[in-house]
Amino acid sequence: MDGPPTVAGMVLPAGSTVPPVPYLVALLAAAALVGWRLFEDAPNVDDRTVLALAPWMAAGAAAYACSQLDLVPGFLAPLSTSPVVYLTTAVVCGAVWLAARTLRERPLVHLALGGAAAALVPAGAAITSGIRSGTLALAWPLGGAFAAVLVAAALWVGLTRVRPSVSVTGWAGALVVLGHVLDGVTTAVGVDVLGFGEQTPLSRIIIEAGAALPTEPYLGGAWLFVVVKAALAVGVVALFTDYVREEPREGFALLGLIAAVGLGPGAHNVVLFAAAGG
Asked: Does residue 16 carry a pLDDT above 80?
């Protein structure tokens, strides 16, 4: 008999797996080593740091999409499933960050460029797979991403005018809003237009609630999920304003983590939907 749902079970996507023990031990050891070196190095974390880390958020998402499309080589496959792929990406990102900090000029630029390269490889593999299989469909995923940018920009401008103090969060605050709006809008495109199912139980509950409303014939079922994601993102940024001002290093680090929770799934949606079609 199944027990009551756990918190992890409500927020992790269906099909989340743990890699074989040797992989898990090696990954945790690498994470501990890189984490310890970063702690010892104590790099400054501000809004520019979070912006430089954004390509790495997309890199992990694209790698997971490749895993779902069975494009990852066998020996790397256990490290590319959800949620392990994000820890794998974090370890590689941390190692590159440490290496970039040994350079005298513009380490954050090198960190961002490394993330862009890490994202382009799996994204390119997924798109190439879509072309070869005849399933490539760019219009809706890219259209959804463009719409998300417009909505996020409007929300950010409105938020900074209503509460000018949020500008202290800088690029990190804007990325939180963009990431979660991107996740919401692309999920709506996938569910209501392309026929994909939502993997995360908590998100699926919200979408089902939206589908039960009288607006479903006109707006679909996922519009409520978009609204919830956008509202949460705006609310979090507003709540973090004082924290970022008083404890900037910790505040920006947490905002970066919150941004990744939105930008990662959003980028994953774009890559997967474009490569697999509807």
From this structure: no
Instruction: Give pLDDT tens digits for 57-98.
Output: 999 999 999 999 999 998 899 999 988 999 999 999 999 999
Quote the pLDDT of residue 8: 45
Measured in residues, the chain has a length of: 278
Which of the 8 DSSP states describes residue 213? S
As a whole-number percent, the residues of the chain with pLDDT over 90 amount to 80
**Angle, CA 223 vertex, CA 152 and CA 232 arms, to 5°:** 50
Residue reference for tokens 């392990």: 84
Radius of gyration over every alpha carbon of the chain, rounded to an integer in angstroms: 19
Question: Which amino acid belongs to residue 238?
Answer: A
How far is Cα 226 from Cα 65, in angstroms, rounded to an integer? 21
Which phi and psi (to 5°) does residue 272 adopt? -65, -45
Query: Are residues 50 and 177 in contact, defined by beta-carbon separation less than 8 angstroms?
Result: no
Query: Rounded to an integer, what distance in angstroms lies between the CA atom of residue 179 and that of residue 229?
Result: 9
| Cβ proximity of 276 and 130 under 8 Å | yes
Residue 106: count of CB within 10 angstroms of its CB:
12
CA–CA distances in Å: residue 175 to residues 66, 154, 183: 24, 13, 12
5 neighbors 201 (Cβ within 8 angstroms): yes
Residue 47 CA to residue 61 CA, distance in Å, equals 21
